[in-house]
Structures are given as C-alpha cells and as structure tokens.
Amino acid sequence: MAVGIYNDDFLNLKRQTGDPAADAFIKYVFADQERKHQLRHWLEGKANAADLDAMFPGCGFLAGAGDLPVWADKKLISAGQAFFAQHAQDIMTLLGLLSLPYCYTAADGAMVLYLSEKIRNQTTKRLYDTAVFVWDVMAPEAFFKGGSAFSDILRIRLVHAAVRFYTLQSGTWDEKLGIPINQEDMAGTNLSFSLIVVRGLRKLGVQISNPQQIAFLHLWKVVGYLSGLDEDLLPENGKMAIQLDLAIKKRQFRSSTHGQELTKSLIEHILKVNRRKVSSNDILGLMRHLLGNEVADMLKVPGPELPRYKLTLLRAMKFFESFSREGDSSHLYYKAYSAFKKQNRELRQKNLL
Question: Which CA distances in Å does 295 have to 9, 259, 299?
C-alpha cells in the first residue's frame, strides 16, 4: 500500500506544494509594513502562539496552532520524549553526523539552504538554533496545553513560509526544482530527525525496542503535522516511514556542488567545536559509517573508513551505556540539557559560537 501511495505522481504533486495556510498568512502580513513589524517582533521574542493569534484576530490559520491533532496519543508523545531523554547526547550527535548531511544529499531540496547564505556563512549559529529547537520540543512538558512546543514549531513554520516568499520573489529560484521547502522536502527532513535517527542509534549499537521506535516516530509525526506537513506524508508506522524514505531517496539523492559545500561547512563546524580526544579521521570515519559509503561519497565526506575494531568497541560501549541511562526521564532530560548549555557557554567564551 505504501509503495502505491509514495509513487512519482504523488510526490511530484507534493513538490509543487508548500504550506498553503502559512503561505497565505505570510502574504497577508508582508503586504503591510506594520503587520510585518508585528510578526518580526513576535518571532524574535518569547511570546506564545496565543499572543500571535491575538495580534492577528480572525486568522483561522493561527486558531489551532496551540492544539494537538485529534489522533495524537499523549502517552506515546511522553514515551517518545522519555526515549529522547535516555539517548539525548547520542541523538544530538547524530543530528550533525547523520541527519543534516542526509538532508543535504537531496540535491533539489538542499538548493534553498545553499541560496540562504546564512547556513554557510553562519553555520555554527544555524546549527545551534536547530539544536535548541530539538531540545525545546523534546522537553517533558513541551506538549502540555499551552506548552512551549506549539510556539517553537509555529516559529519554524512561519520562517519556512517567509523563506519561500522571499526565495520566489528573488528571481534566483529554478521552478523545475518545485516550490522552495516543499512538502516532499519537509517530509524528508522530518524522516531525517526521526526514522534516520533511530537507524543511526542502532548503527551505534544502541538497543531500541519496537515500542520505543513507535513512540519516537509518533512524536515526530506530531511535530511534522504542527509544522505544516500534509497528513498523507506522515507515515502511520515504521514500515511506511521506510517506504517513504526509500521513495524520496530514489528521487532526490545525488551528488551536487551545493550539497557538498553545505556538508563541508558542517564538517568544519563539527571539527572546530570538537572537545573530545577524538581524531578528525575517527569523526569523519564515523560520519561515513553512519551515512553509508554511497551517500558519503555523494557528499564527498573525506577520511578513511573507521577500523572495524573501533566500531566493535563503540557498539559494545553503547550497549552497556543503555543500562546506565535508565531512570526518571525528566531528570535525564534536564541533566543532558544542562550539559548542552554548559558546552555552549564554553564555546561562546572561546568565540566559537
């Protein structure tokens, strides 16, 4: 059934679709300088989704921005967040070594990132913003009524709509690539933060049960829905997620100069902020292992293959670490988040962030 759904005709249509509701809202706001100023003020502040709704009354798009979809399972959301808390450090490492470069291999979708020079010229700041977003939506209370996840996701959704607006207005966009940040590309990104992370953890040697995978994928399904993804691009289970990933990969993954440049900037950032006694070759070898040689070669990830004995040692270490990470999920989350913030304070002191 999934193979029939995720065919070329279906995904070709998705490449021509952005986020109609958010795009209409941005077009309305950008037509007036005062409204534009109000939105910019909201995006830069800490106000919540309800405050934005009050600024622009009558916009149906904003009315449900603080609500979960009817199919959302709060127990699965909590279980997904608990899974993140247990493996937070590894998951955040995988975002840089696997999830982001995986996205860069989708050549057409990566073009909008390349044209937005901030991702290349302010790589560390942009990656930090992405990491903070993930930490925020994974917080134990993030999806409670009025929780911060709704506003955090809405900000990302509106930023994407603004990027679409400006990119199309710039005259530099090739229409053959589809709409900038289109539904297919958004689906691929969502998979890279969910299914691909689970796959990466298993490659590291982390033991993951089927209920844990179901919960983590469900959590990102909720994030995808609130981000403006069409429901028919939110897989119902792991099997359908794999089918969607394979379909997008077959259609979009190829070598590209812009994908390679984005990866080069990412690697430079990772090596610059590396605080551990790990050699550059080992870091790059692990990236190649996680991505697989085919994808790594498309991105021109340098470095030799990681020796088998090092992979065996790493997998054994991750297996035993799994037992030491059990406990209260809130405690595990805030302990890991505190370590993340401490690391970034040190980076700021060294003018690396």
Answer: 25, 11, 6
Can you read off the two tokens belonging to residue 282? 């080992």
CA distance 153 to 66: 10
Whole-model pTM above 0.85? yes
Q: How many CB atoms lie within 10 A of CB 57?
A: 8
Query: Do 59 and 158 contact (CB within 8 A), yes or no?
Result: no
List pLDDT tens digits, range 262-280.
999 999 989 988 877 789 9
- Nearest by Cα to 158 from 227, 59, 70, 92: 227
d(CA 283, CA 306) in angstroms, rounded, equals 9
Domain boundaries, the chain: 2-273+324-349
Instruction: Give the angle subtended at the CA of 101 by the CAs of 187 and 314, to the nearest 5°.
Output: 110
94 close to 201: Cβ distance less than 8 angstroms: yes
Percentage of residues in the chain having pLDDT higher than 90: 75
> Residue 277 in 3-state DSSP?
coil
